[in-house]
Amino acid sequence: MCGIIGYVGGRRDAGFLVIEGLKNLEYRGYDSWGVAWKEGRKIAVCKETGKIGCVDAAKIAKEGNLAIAHTRWATHGGVTTENAHPHLSCNGSIAVVHNGIVENYEEIRRDLIAKGHRFLSETDTEVIPHLIEEEMKTTGDFAAAVRRACLKFEGRFAVLAMHAESGTLVAARTGSPLIVGVGDHEGYFIASDIPAFREHTSTVQYLDDGEMVVTDGRSILFSDLKTGAEREKREIEITWETAQVQKGKYAHFMLKEIMEQKDSIARAVNQDEGEIQTLAEAIRAAQGTFLSGCGTAAKACMAAEYFFSVIAGQHVNFAPASEFKLFHRFLKPQSLLIVVSQSGETADVLEAMKVAKSKGAKVLAIVNTEGSTIAREADYTLHINAGPERAVASTKALTGQMAVLMLIAYAMIGKLPKGRTRLLETAAAINDMLNPRYTSFIESLAEKIKDDKDLYIIGKSWNYPMALESAIKIQEVSYVHAEGFAGGELKHGPIALIEEGTPCIALVGNDEVRTDIINNAIELKARGGFIIGVAPERHAVFDEWIKVPDTDTAQAIVNIIPIQVLAYFLAVKRGKDPDMPRNLAKSVTVK
Ligand code: AGP
């Protein structure tokens, strides 16, 4: 997911403003970056691969009131400075940054080359400034040219373009987020996420899908991208402070966000009772309820299948968002799709929502990001209120998502207060569990297994999705090959993988399946496995025991937390940056 920021207004240090803003978007993951600023009637550009280092002040304009910047996560074209954004028009007075994919770029590129345009990169993005330049030959107006160009693109995108001559910023979106920051007394920011400009303003305006915005720094105009009709936009005050998105006393966002779960789970539980009851009834009334999400959010959905089954006796169907469209035949107007997403911008989830809506089904979104596209396109929305999650590895969002889904399951059997109590007790137990002695014990375990090349995790019932989630966490931050299995599946193949000393984690609860999963651990041990038990009680089969509180139906929520800590320390001990793992982005806004 690329990062976008632009500024135009009374400030004369626009180049520095947008680079500082870009640093607040680093959590999204990137492999190159660039900045463009107005110099007279022309545009100057500085682009580099790798991380944003100390920027050479001589390179960046000291005097300038219009600039755009971008962090790129490569999709079309390799990681090179030529492919980094911003990209310029032939005449050098238009610069563009972009998030998403122009799916029909090859056809557009061929047409532009035939008209004499010269391309310097392999990217789809570079067709945008050249097409705008071509459109300006007929419209003469920058904003009108951007509109006409954007209407020729296919695919989901967010575009931010600057024009040196008119001194304006124009942005348009279909599917990838863009938010306007209203400068306190001068200027406007336009960015893909609020942290890019949060230290300069707390007043924002959301650009919706199919909309465009034009500003010269003094005034601003929102309009419908297709018709040009003007759109009114409310100014919204953002309440959280930048401090919340800084690491504070922690070395990494990931550890900070793991430790925040003492509080974030309680915030997730603090939902409007009437709203939860209404959604519970909507699930009861639906003819087919589907759960869908991606990655870690998908594991919250899988855990919810067990919550709805075991707690509420309700059948729901999970499908990964990228697979959901293959089940469209089962969708009716009376169906309900529940989507779960931390960022609220995941392209596969938006696609799943489109399929459900095409069949007339209703959509409930459980998200962590206010104002996100998924939140605004759903029929009902619940916020988990976990606060900004900056690490690419999702931790506090997962447990918040599971808490909300469990609450709904309890509401379905008229026991919402019991569910709330269970979850608040769980939050309190996590508060006791997450102490320095506990995390240093887990750090010592990470030290023991950090050089192992394979690691397996088993679980049963709601701990099976947590075994899969454990694998994602360990894979994505430490790059260790980890795999999760349903304990009962071992003897059908995976147990062949076990060698002397292979680390195997068993996720255990004091529930009806405890004996089964302990027996699975015994099978692993018999073949040489080094057994790490995550359980409320010790057992002889465990070579190492990570004690967790007994939280009954909420056991999956507590069992995943020591694994998050283990994954974090495995990454650090293997010299990796747990906040910005290679090849990954915080939100996958492309299909
Ligand atoms: C989780 O640690 C990963 N970063 C990834 O799997 C993530 O959960 C997935 O991309 C879904 O993101 P979302 O919750 O923002 O939709």
Can you offer a commentary on this structure?
With 591 residues, the chain is an alpha/beta fold. It has 3 domains: 3-236, Glutamine Phosphoribosylpyrophosphate, subunit 1, domain 1 (4-Layer Sandwich), CATH 3.60.20.10; 243-431, 3-Layer(aba) Sandwich (Rossmann fold); 435-579, 3-Layer(aba) Sandwich (Rossmann fold). The chain contains 16 helices and 25 strands. The strands form 4 sheets. The protein has an 8-stranded antiparallel β-sheet, covered by helices on one side. It has a 7-stranded antiparallel β-sheet with strand order 5-6-7-8-12-13-14, with helices on one face. A hairpin with a 2-residue loop joins strand 2 and strand 3. Bound molecules: 2-deoxy-2-amino glucitol-6-phosphate.
Shape: globular
Radius of gyration: 25 Å
Distinct helical segment count? 16
Sheet with most strands: strand arrangement: 3-2-4-1-10-9-11-15
Brief descriptors of the model:
about 600 residues; alpha/beta; Glutamine Phosphoribosylpyrophosphate, subunit 1, domain 1; Rossmann fold; 3 domains; 8-stranded antiparallel β-sheet; 7-stranded antiparallel β-sheet; about 35% helix; binds 2-deoxy-2-amino glucitol-6-phosphate
Brief overview, please?
With 591 residues, the chain is of the alpha/beta class. It contains 16 helices and 25 strands. α6 (261-269) packs antiparallel against α12 and α7 (273-285) packs across α11 (396-412).
Helices and strands in order, then pairings?
Elements lengths: L2 E6 L5 H10 L8 E8 L2 E8 L16 E7 L14 E2 L5 E7 L4 H10 L12 H13 L2 H9 L6 E7 L4 E7 L4 E4 L5 E4 L11 E4 L4 E5 L4 E5 L5 E2 L4 E2 L15 H7 L1 H9 L3 H13 L3 E5 L1 H17 L5 E4 L15 E6 L5 H12 L3 E6 L5 H5 L2 E4 L12 H17 L3 H18 L2 H14 L4 E6 L3 H16 L2 E6 L16 E5 L6 H13 L3 E6 L8 E4 L7 H19 L18
Parallel strand pairs: 16-17, 16-18, 18-19, 19-20, 21-22, 21-23, 23-24, 24-25
Antiparallel strand pairs: 1-4, 1-10, 2-3, 2-4, 5-6, 6-7, 7-8, 8-12, 9-10, 9-11, 11-15, 12-13, 13-14
Helix pairs in contact: 2-3, 3-4, 6-11, 6-12, 7-11, 8-11, 8-14, 11-12, 13-16, 14-16
Bound molecules: 2-deoxy-2-amino glucitol-6-phosphate.
The site of 2-deoxy-2-amino glucitol-6-phosphate (AGP) has 16 residues, from α8 and α14.
